[in-house]
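Field reference: sequence -> structure
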Amino acid sequence: MPKNQETNKNVKSDSPNQDSASLGRRQFTKAGLLASPVLMSVVSRPVFGVGCLSNILSGNLSDPDRGSCNLGLSPGYYKEHPEAWPMNAGQKLDGSFPISCNDCIDKDTSTSPPTRTWVCTREALFNTYFTTNKDPLDRPMLEILCTEEGSDEFHIIAALLNAMTVPNYVLTVAQVKDLWADPTLDGQISNFKAFLNDTWT
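Structure field:
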């Protein structure tokens, strides 16, 4: 990706608005998760280590808090709400925070096809948070969300932000990074994107 993509908004460095996040969240029960066909191949044994998802998969209900976790928010939400990020997602050149992707993309219609240039500051770089399968252009995560919709990176960034901000999200930050290092979890997940889509509303 072009290096003219400078990503960093005046996104607040505090956690996302709890009220808006809670509206998009619902409880993820053991029964609901196990009903998902994407996870059927994982149910045989817990592969995420200690955490909400592994508790569900283990079926160990001796602890009343096990087997229940929260769904997160979608990649589309995070790309349009940089203010909800737990870190500075970037800022506009005038120092203000972007409200949406359009605030960070300069479109030149004098060329054919039109060229799109990333004009926000470079914050929250993908390679800062993911040390395997790095982004060759070392882009900001907001830029990837805004320009690579539907990609594997698009999905894993949302999972990371959810793990960092949603209490008792299906995955921990460490589990998200492990999943990015091996999207099949040693052959136990057949559809990486579908799996993650099941972890948010």
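Note: The radius of gyration is 18 Å.
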